[in-house]
Each structure stands twice: as C-alpha cells, then as structure tokens.
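Why do we bother with holo predictions? Because pocket geometry can differ from the apo form. Keep that in mind while you read this record for flavin mononucleotide.
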Amino acid sequence: MNPISYNEYARETLTSLSQGAFLTTKKDDQVNTMTIGWGAVSYMWGKPVFTVMVRESRYTKHMIDAAGEFTVSLPEGALADAVKLCGAKSGRDMDKIAEAGLTLLPPAKLSTPFIGGCSLHFECKTLYKQEMDLALLDEATRDRWYANGDVHTIYYGEIIGAYRA
Ligand SMILES: Cc1cc2nc3c(=O)[nH]c(=O)nc-3n(C[C@H](O)[C@H](O)[C@H](O)COP(=O)(O)O)c2cc1C
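The structure, written out:
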C-alpha cells in the first residue's frame, strides 16, 4: 500500500466509483461492506473530503453512525461478483466478507480495514453528516430516486489516508 495524495488518482477514483466500490464499516468486532456507486472526492473546510450517500434502510447506516469512520476501496473493474453480492445482500443477514470471498487489509491510521484486491483505498473520519430533506430536492430527482421515502444521509469523511495497492 503506497500512500498517495487524495486527488492524485481522481479520474480513476471517480470512474471506478461509478462502476461500484466498497464502503466498509466496523463496529465492535463486526466488519461489513456495501457497494456504492455515488460519491465525491472534494476539498471542504480546508480538508480533503470523501462524500458517500447511504440510505436509511442500509445496515451500513447503523454501522457508520456508530463508528464515525469508514473506508472506501475501489476495485477498478475487478471483483465484479463481490460488487454484485455486496450491493444486493445485507450485513444484517450474513457475513458478506466471507460470503463474497473477500479479504481484509489491516487499517492504516484508523480502525476500519480495507478490501483486498482493490487498487485504490481511502480511510475517512466523518466530519459532517446530513440526512436529505426531500422538500428541498428538485422534484424530478425526488420522484426518480425517493418514491419510497428511503432517503440518503450524506457523509462527509475527512480523508485521513489515501493509498494505491
Ligand atoms: C452498483 C451499486 C451501487 C450502489 N450504490 C449505493 C449507494 O451509493 N448508496 C446506497 O445507500 N446504496 C447503494 N447501493 C445498494 C447497497 O449496496 C445495498 O442495498 C446493500 O445490500 C446494502 O448493504 P448493507 O445492508 O449491508 O448496508 C448500490 C448497489 C449497487 C449494486
């Protein structure tokens, strides 16, 4: 794992994210990962920030709220079966890491591990989070994505470390 600057592989990060990445959380001894497709790498409050969006219904919501930190691991097109499984099954019902045959890489500066076999990794500490207020959202977007009311909470994680495998 070679340390990189947070925006050194921004293009690869955003391309890979749109194809499915792993958002990993740890609470007590339990590690869970879920597939994400939306997010951003940015600079806010004088810090590098990775933003992820987690719907209320996700087990990850409970994990990330408790932990106050998370990692994002980007497979850059690899691990397609695991991306699929972790985007369809819940950590509420199973150990997805084992089920998907994923390996964990030890944490670097925080407590949450990374997903092995990925090429880019970010470790993040929640700086700010906000549940979406659907009344403030563009109507067409609200109708398209939130017909069932399962809103996202947006997590702004300070990027504490970024790595290329
Ligand atoms: C390609 C892809 C991208 C996804 N992106 C997100 C996302 O950005 N936010 C979200 O809340 N769910 C997203 N999901 C759905 C979750 O991964 C899925 O509901 C998962 O089973 C939740 O796992 P959990 O209950 O263990 O947290 C995505 C699913 C796929 C297949």
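The first helix runs from residue 10 to 19.
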